[in-house]
Amino acid sequence: MAERDKTKDGASDGLTLRAATSEDGSDVWQLIRESGPLDENSMYCNTLQCDHFGETCVIAELDGQIVGWVSAFILPSDPETLFIWQVAVDSKARGMGVARRMLEHLLARDVCADIKRLQTTITADNEASWALFNSFADHMDATLEREPHYKRDTHFEGRHATEYMVTISEIEANEARKTATEDGKAKVAP
After folding, report:
1. Residue 102's Cα: distance from chain center in Å?
2. CA–CA distance from 115 to each of 54, 68, 99, 101, 110 (Å)?
3. H or E element: which one contains 74?
4. Which helix (H) or strand (E) segment is 73 a member of?
5. For 52-88, what is each residue's pLDDT tens digit?
6. Dihedrals φ, ψ of 28, to 5°?
């Protein structure tokens, strides 16, 4: 059972963070479609993410309605790296720090105890994602590096912008757990 999140002043803001379940797939699919500018997957894909990777995905609910989503997985070839696939926040929950709180909540989970790095890919023009991950790295007092990874012409036949691999290193899951509990922005579900 997830605990209610607290705002900076300690007052409950009605936000609940929890792991995803297979029943969340269609709601996540709809959130992604409405949130933009994310790549849309099939409803089946989102259901698989929620089911197979539920422990490393986060659902944010506001008054019982899904308003946030983080899809992530631990790299099979590198169990110290957590790859963030998508972050979506409904317009009614923007400005509440939901995206960062979901990342903190995720890193505070037992499944992420050995995580040392967080990776994601971002196109150069995605200002919201750059702001989120730069802010998150600053908040975690971690290093952020970027380099072209999936290239427009090499990987996407010129049909998609280059995706930059963003690596936030020097993350200690124990520090994330401590931060998440101390500042009241992300409580770990029992």
Report:
1. 6
2. 17, 22, 19, 17, 10
3. strand 65-74
4. strand 65-74
5. 999 999 999 998 899 999 999 999 999 999 999 999 9
6. -65, -45
- Is there a cis peptide before residue 190, judged by omega within 30 degrees of 0? no
DSSP character at residue 147: E
Distance CA 38, CA 36 (A): 5
> Which pLDDT score, from 0 to 100, does residue 119 have?
96
Separation between Cα atoms, residue 14 and residue 150, nearest integer Å: 38
Amino acid identity of residue 20, one-letter, is: A
**Cβ neighbours for 25, distance < 8 A, ≥ 6 positions apart:** 43, 44, 46, 47, 48, 49, 50, 51
Question: 171 and 117 in contact (C-beta within 8 Å)?
Answer: yes
Please state, in angstroms and rounded to a whole number, the distance separating the CA atoms of residues 30 and 26. 6
The pTM of this model reads: 0.82
Higher confidence at residue 150 or residue 96? Answer: 96
* Token pair 């730069």 in the structure block, residue: 134
The 8-class DSSP code of residue 23 comes to G
| Mean of pLDDT over the chain | 83
pLDDT-wise least confident of 88-92, 106-110, 153-157 = 153-157
154: DSSP letter? H
CB 79 within 8 A of CB 73: no
What the block records as the tokens of 171 is: 């993350």
